[in-house]
Structure formats: structure tokens, C-alpha cells
Amino acid sequence: MISNPRPPTPPTTPPTPVTPPTPVTPPTTPTPDTEVPVVPQAELPQTGEHTSNAGFIGLLSMIFAAFVGFFKRRKED
Questions:
Q1: In whole angstroms, how far apart are CA 76 and each of 4, 66, 68, 71?
Q2: HEC profile for the chain?
Q3: pLDDT value at 75 more than 60
Q4: Which of 62, 1, 58, 48 has the alpha carbon at shortest distance from 70?
Q5: N or C of the chain: less Cβ packing under 10 Å?
Q6: pLDDT (0 to 100) of residue 63
Q7: What CA–CA distance (Å, rounded) separates 46 from 49?
């Protein structure tokens, strides 16, 4: 066990907190009366990319083949 060479000091009361002053709000800037013109965005070029369903069809055919092989193997047992 570790011994403490100094005797404990009596607890002290913490100081009371100070209330902060209320913040000063900065003056607001007047809003301009003129409207900002809206610039139309340019259209992106067509790159010729198209989506393909080949991957989806391949996945479906693999699932179908797995089911056919599973049921065919079960009937032989």
C-alpha cells in the first residue's frame, strides 16, 4: 500500500461563477436592392454511354442453371 507523507488538506469552497456580459450584436448590412442575374448552366456533352442488361441476364441464367442442377441432382438420389 502506498502511504501519503502529507496530511490531507480541508476542502475549499470554489469561487462563485461570474456571469458573462451579454454579447454585442454586430450591425446588419443593408441588403442590395438590385437582383443578381441568373446565368444558365451549359449542357454537358453527350458521351454515348448506354447501360446494358447483359450482366443482369447473365446473372439470371446462372441462377436458373444452379436451380436446374440442384433439382436434377436431388431426383437422382
A1: 84, 16, 13, 9
A2: CCCCCCCCCCCCCCCCCCCCCCCCCCCCCCCCCCCCCCCCCCCCCCCCCCCCCHHHHHHHHHHHHHHHHHHHHHHHC
A3: no
A4: 62
A5: N
A6: 92
A7: 8
